[in-house]
Amino acid sequence: MHTIRSYLNDDKFKFNITNKNIYIDNYNKIENLTDTNVTLKFNDFIIAIEGKDFIIKKLIDKEILFTGEITN
User: Fold this and answer.
1) CA-CA distance, 12 to 15, in Å (whole number)?
2) Following DSSP, what letter does each residue of the chain receive, concatenated?
3) N or C: which end of the chain has fewer CB within 10 A?
4) Burial of 59 by CB count in 10 Å (0-12 exposed, 13-18 middle, 19+ buried)?
5) Which residues pair with 51 in a beta bridge?
6) How many Å apart are CA 48 and CA 2, to the nearest integer?
7) What are residue 49's phi and psi, to 5 degrees?
8) How many CB atoms lie within 10 A of CB 38?
9) Smallest Cα–Cα separation from 26: which of 5, 4, 6, 41?
10) Cα–Cα distances in Å, from 12 out to 28, 36, 51, 52, 72?
11) Percent of the residues in the chain that have a pLDDT greater than 70, as a whole number
12) How many angstroms separate the CA atoms of 61 and 68, rounded?
């Protein structure tokens, strides 16, 4: 039970890229979201991802999954 509770309360930033899938967890705010740019704000930093053909697959509270080609 402790492991499940720890997982559910985890607020660490997670970033995972696999074969054109980009998964990001525990961001604070979406600053920009287009088919060529995703910018997310965290507590201490901002991540800006540039690319093309971004398509949002999943967008729920502090969690985003999108596909596309990253260029920068």
Assistant:
1) 10
2) -HHHHHHHT----EEEEETTEEEEES-SEEEEE-SSEEEEE-SS-EEEEEEEEEEEEEEETTEEEEEEEE--
3) N
4) exposed
5) 70
6) 35
7) -115, 125
8) 24
9) 41
10) 11, 26, 25, 27, 23
11) 85
12) 21
Residue pLDDT, tens place only, 3-22: 666 555 667 888 899 888 99
Q: Which two tokens stand for residue 38?
A: 């995703």
- Sequence length of the chain is 72
- The amino acid occupying position 6 is S
